[in-house]
Amino acid sequence: MSATMPTVTVCRGCCCGTRKKHPDVDHDAQLDVLRESVRDVARVRTSDCLDDCKRSNVVVVSPSRAGRAEGGRPVWLQKVLTASAIDAIGEWIRAGGPGVVTTPPDVGRHVYRPGASTKKAAAKAEKKAKKTKR
Questions:
Q1: pLDDT score at 18
Q2: What is the pTM assigned to this prediction?
């Protein structure tokens, strides 16, 4: 795979991706669906811990070379626990991802800034998603 593709880092280890914290989520199936969804357009890798357990499941989408050239930066996503979230993330990445296309509302509701409080980040992501709908 080309180094010019987006990279998707999926937290799987300490809390994210464990049945102990999220017993109703099939984490392996989620990862398989995401990998298949972005096959040939992005690299998917796992990390043991991204050190933001209170927001699990955490996914970070880093832009492609083209996305970085357009100002794209890594996008941190929180509470990625549903099939619809995985599908929306896959569609966004297939369309180009950070810096190439605007973050769609179904992905935007999961966006947060590392280090920001969960409540503040959720409010900001919701506000951004509403602006995108207009």
A1: 83
A2: 0.83
- Measure the CA–CA gap between 81 and 67, rounded to whole angstroms: 26
**How far is the first Cα of the chain from the last one, in angstroms, to the nearest whole number?**
37
The pair phi, psi for residue 106, each rounded to 5°, is -65, -20
In sequence order, which residues have a C-beta less than 8 Å from that of residue 73 and are 6 or more positions away? Answer: 63, 98, 99
Closest CA to 102 of 90, 92, 91: 92
Rounded to whole angstroms, how far apart are CA atoms 41 and 113?
25
pLDDT digits 0-9 by tens, 35-84: 999 999 999 999 999 999 899 999 999 999 999 999 999 999 999 999 99
Instruction: Report the distance separating Cα 96 and Cα 100, nearest Å.
Output: 5
> Which residue(s) pair with 75 in the sheet?
61
pLDDT in tens, 84-107: 999 999 999 999 999 999 999 999
CB-based contact 15:21 (threshold 8 Å): yes
What is the number of other CB atoms lying within 10 angstroms of the CB of residue 105?
Answer: 16
3-state helix, strand, coil in the chain (%, to 5): 40, 15, 45
